[in-house]
Amino acid sequence: MRYNWSAGFVAHVITGAMATGAHYLVMWALLKAGLDPLLASSTGFVAGAVSRFFLSYFHVFAPRSSVPAAAGRFVLALAVQMLLNGLFLSGLMHLLPLWWAQVVTTAILTVFNYVLHRLWVFT
Asked: What is the block-wise mean pLDDT of the chain (123 residues), using blocks of 10 residues?
């Protein structure tokens, strides 16, 4: 059966929004509990990443590799994403206002991540 790239991309974007929601919900709850903002955000990020991994693994890509194998590649992909985010943002900030630079960076990385996840992380 052929893989439907456009439907997969839409599912990737939806799971990304859900993961962002998990990140923000955990962060909000931890801030309400009095936790330091940086620790609350970092914990929320981890919650979002974990939810993103499992949503992607079971509902977007249907990989043949095991959960641990895909999880290892996912963590490496997150590191690459963080590096590229910094590189793109630092370059685009010289051309655009900060938030526009971040929006463009996010759009580029959304497409990059989808291809990376489809071809390598969740194989």
From this structure: 86 96 95 94 95 96 95 97 93 94 93 96 96
DSSP string over 45-66: HHHHHHHHHHHIIIIII--SS-
Q: Residue 87's CB: how many other CB atoms inside 10 A?
A: 11
Q: How far apart are the first and last CA of the chain?
A: 15
Question: For residues 10 and 105, what is the distance between their CA atoms, to the nearest angstrom?
Answer: 18
CA dist., res. 84 & res. 28, Å (int):
27
Which contacts (CB < 8 Å, 24+ apart) does range 108-112 have? 109/81, 109/84, 109/85, 110/12, 110/13, 110/16, 111/9, 112/81, 112/84
With the CA atoms of 80, 81, 84 and 89 taken in that order, what torsion angle do they form, in degrees rounded to the nearest 10?
A: -160
